[in-house]
Write a structure and sequence with these properties.
Layout (H helix, E strand, L loop, with lengths): L5 H9 L8 H9 L15 H8 L4 H11 L4 H15 L7 H31 L4 E3 L3 H5 L5 E4 L5 E8 L11 H14 L3 E7 L4 E6 L5 H9 L18
Parallel strand pairs: 3-4
Antiparallel strand pairs: 1-2, 2-3, 4-5
Length: about 240
């Protein structure tokens, strides 16, 4: 039984698909001016940790785990995102039902799909005799860092972000991802790499700072966006 309001249980029963993860709502919550950032583990819970620790076998199981462990239930997050439309769009562009479907995508579908992608990445990366470690929550939920590559002495050498194949299409629009990674690179003096899945070759391709456009490079050097007010005082070794 889902731990959820009946009106939302009905929406789930009717079917929620990845297409309900609307791009302009992504911009509103994560990439616009003064983004709401409603899904961070600091405000909710790390869904990736829930998956690693409890190994849910279905969407319903993950949602119930989220409802049990999160600082805010999905209904509350839906209300907050719904109201934030007045700030971002100047009006209620989408219904409460559409907003719920979007939040469900971000919390449940994206997390399950992301975990599957990360597991495929781990297998692929290990075949190259290279080692990684899962970082602490703050690097994952705030700075888009899914793995840290280690050298033979177990020291961090690279921040890694793992993305699905769809990320490569117009990837420079994901400005928050690059800002978070560049913040870490500047703070700790380590490079970052984004690996996105290449299903045809059953491998992963990479994006690095050097492969970015001059315009995006200039932006990252001059502005850290959301991360301008972010502090990270911990030593790198304590973050993985």
């Amino acid at each position: 039984m889902l731990n959820l309001d009946n009106k939302y249980i009905k929406l789930i029963a009717e079917g929620i698909k990845p297409r309900d993860n609307l791009p302009d709502l992504n911009d509103m919550t994560d990439r616009g001016n003064n983004p709401l950032k409603p899904f961070t583990s600091a405000k909710t819970v790390s869904t990736m940790d829930l998956i690693r620790n409890y190994k849910p076998q279905s969407e319903d199981e993950l949602l119930n785990l989220f409802q049990q462990h999160s600082k805010k239930r999905i209904e509350v997050i839906t209300d907050e995102v719904y109201e934030h439309q007045k700030v971002y769009f100047g009006d209620y562009k989408y219904t409460k039902e559409t907003i719920f479907k979007y939040c469900y995508c971000c919390i449940v579908l994206n997390s399950l799909n992301g975990n599957s992608t990360e597991l495929r990445f781990d297998s692929w990366f290990s075949l190259q005799q290279r080692r990684t470690r899962v970082p602490k929550n703050i690097l994952d939920s705030v700075f888009h860092t899914d793995r840290i590559e280690l050298n033979e002495e177990d020291r961090a050498i690279t921040f890694i972000s793992i993305k699905p194949a769809s990320f490569y299409h117009n990837f420079e629009k994901y400005i928050d991802v690059f800002e978070g990674l560049q913040f870490l690179s500047r703070r700790f003096g380590r490079p970052w790499v984004i690996y996105y899945e290449n299903p045809q070759s059953q491998s992963f391709s990479s994006i690095t700072y050097d492969s970015l456009s001059p315009t995006l490079k200039q932006h990252l050097e001059q502005n850290q966006g959301y991360y301008n007010q972010t502090k990270l005082d911990q030593k790198l070794e304590s973050l993985y």
